[in-house]
Specification:
257 residues; alpha/beta; Rossmann fold; 2 domains; 7-stranded mixed sheet; 11 helices; 7 strands; 56% helix; binds NADP nicotinamide-adenine-dinucleotide phosphate
Length: 257
């Protein structure tokens, strides 16, 4: 397909900027919008063959319900949201355009495609789904095709549980009251690697991490499991029973690896 026009709402920064750069290299005409750009979300909804929503999670539903009704059957409405059930359902409900759900499983600083995964969710129609899938594959990304429900269920682990664990570590260290400058003098390689992640999650985009935990519709079971596991580990540690804790880890390792 030639001379494709793409409008990226939230394309001035972050993941929208990443996609804009990629699509410009692929020969598309790309218009980006932010809250202060002259071109608005409404403008790109009217002129784009493909319109991509890439705004913070808390603003996503509002943008989709505003621009979706402006779009027609031959166009495509797509999103890059880190959660998929709600935005894909909203795009289907509020627009007659083709619908593609997309979640790149990496951050905007990624420059190399090799080794990076992108989830695509079929919403409505085949034309634009096949188009974007072909672009991602041609540029070296690994595309994983899943339903929004399958995506969100696995994200309870990859995002909710993973980031919850990081947030718990950071908050517990803060609660001890021991200055990190002092703790860092005793740093091991593993501690340093973990604290780099804690720093990224707490300082770069805390609202993103908070929303992908709190906003995941399947989060409750996994949060309950985490709570119970931490209590069980604490009980074994408090009993001074290293052997039982080691046995519990070996049992888990057999399930995991
Ligand atoms: N960051 C990641 O690692 C990552 C990875 C995969 C998917 N995602 C998803 O990508 C989407 C965007 O996240 P991001 O991290 O790229 O965010 P970001 O870096 O904060 O960029 C957000 C973009 O949206 C615009 N924006 C901010 N608030 C807005 C509002 N209320 N209404 C309209 N536009 C607004 C911003 O433009 P102005 O500031 O110029 O207004 C900017 O262009 C989210 O759905 C997130 O779940 C993020």
């Amino acid at each position: 397909m030639k001379n494709i026009t793409v409008g990226i709402i939230g394309g001035t920064n972050g993941m929208g900027r990443w996609l804009a750069d990629l699509l410009v290299k692929e020969g598309c005409i790309v218009h980006v919008t932010g809250r202060k750009t002259e071109m608005t979300a409404t403008d790109v909804a009217r002129i784009g063959d493909v319109v991509v929503v890439s705004v913070p999670i808390a603003a996503t539903a509002g943008v989709i319900t505003r621009v979706g009704p402006l779009m027609k059957k031959g166009q495509a409405l797509m999103d890059l949201t880190s959660l998929k059930k709600e935005p894909v359902a909203l795009m289907l409900a509020h627009s007659e355009a083709e619908v593609v759900g997309c979640h790149p499983l990496f951050g905007p600083s990624v420059t190399e495609s090799a080794g990076h995964n992108i989830v695509l969710c079929r919403g409505r129609g085949d034309t634009w789904y096949a188009w974007i899938k072909a672009i991602f594959e041609k540029t070296g990304y690994h595309v994983l095709e899943r339903t929004p429900a399958e995506h969100d269920r696995i994200m309870t682990i990859v995002q909710a549980l993973n980031h919850l664990n990081t947030i718990a570590l950071g908050m517990a260290i803060a609660e001890t009251g021991i200055p990190l400058t002092e703790v860092n003098l005793f740093s091991t390689p593993i501690f340093k690697a973990k604290m780099d992640i804690v720093k990224k999650v707490f300082t770069e985009s805390p609202e993103l991490y908070a929303d992908i935990i709190a906003g995941n519709p399947d989060r409750d079971n996994v949060l309950r499991t985490y709570e119970q596991v931490v209590l069980d580990i604490c009980d074994l540690a408090k009993a001074g029973d290293g052997a039982k804790l080691k046995n519990a880890m070996e049992t888990a390792a057999k399930k995991l690896f």
